[in-house]
Amino acid sequence: MDAIELLLTRQSTPRLIAPAPDASQLKIILDAAIRVPDHGALAPWEFIIATDQGLNTLADIFVEAAKASGADEDFVNKAKGMPMRAPMVITVVAKTQQHPKVPVLEQLIAAGCATMAMQQAAFALGIGAVWRTGDFAFDANVNAALGLEPHDQIVGFLYVGTPAVVAPQKPQKDGSQYVRYL
User: For residue 19, is the peptide bond before it cis, meaning its omega torsion is within 30 degrees of 0?
Assistant: First the structure.
């Protein structure tokens, strides 16, 4: 798959099953993440990978956070199953810092770009991925359970695995419909 084809056909794959990427595929996915624009070479990201027992640990973290927020039993049960929607979940964290030339916003965007690059690399490898956020990405209890600092920000949970079904290709949109010239 060439780069233009990837950019014009990439899509999320929400129904994922085992296997997860193997070690060589995961290396490509992670290497793609750190090639994104990174003003000041700050590497303002961390990737927390959950597979196997790690998915159960992430589920426990979600359940405890849901309970702490006063969620009802239905949501607590849903939270327990969230990490099980894929054989691998990569929590992408923006590890921002104060810098005289690189605003925090740029660092957050860089971590977001890293997430997108991982999803694109997975797609190019024939691996499915979907980028999710939700309340747990902004939950202080989740941050604490993952050992994050108060200023760290989860930018997404990248669910990765084998596509369960071949998704129909989405229709091509016309990017010029979103343009305004000065």
Answer: yes
Instruction: Dump pLDDT digits (tens) for 106-121.
Output: 999 999 999 999 999 9
AA identity, residue 69:
S
pLDDT along the chain (182 residues), means of 10: 89 94 98 98 98 98 98 98 98 97 98 98 96 97 97 98 89 94 96
Phi, psi of 11 (to 5 degrees): -150, 160
Q: How far is CA 40 from the centre of its chain?
A: 23
Q: How far apart are CA 181 and CA 113, in angstroms?
A: 25
Paired strand residues for 89 = 50, 159
Give the span between the Cα atoms of 139 and 177, in whole angstroms.
36
The type of residue at 43 is A
Using alpha carbons only, how large is the chain's radius of gyration in Å? Answer: 17
pTM of the model: 0.95
Query: For residues 21, 47, 62 and 82, what is the CA-based torsion angle, rounded to 10 degrees?
Result: -30
Question: Do 26 and 65 contact (CB within 8 A), yes or no?
Answer: no
Nearest CA to 86 among 131, 120, 48?
A: 131
41: left (phi over 0), alpha (psi -120 to 50) or beta: left
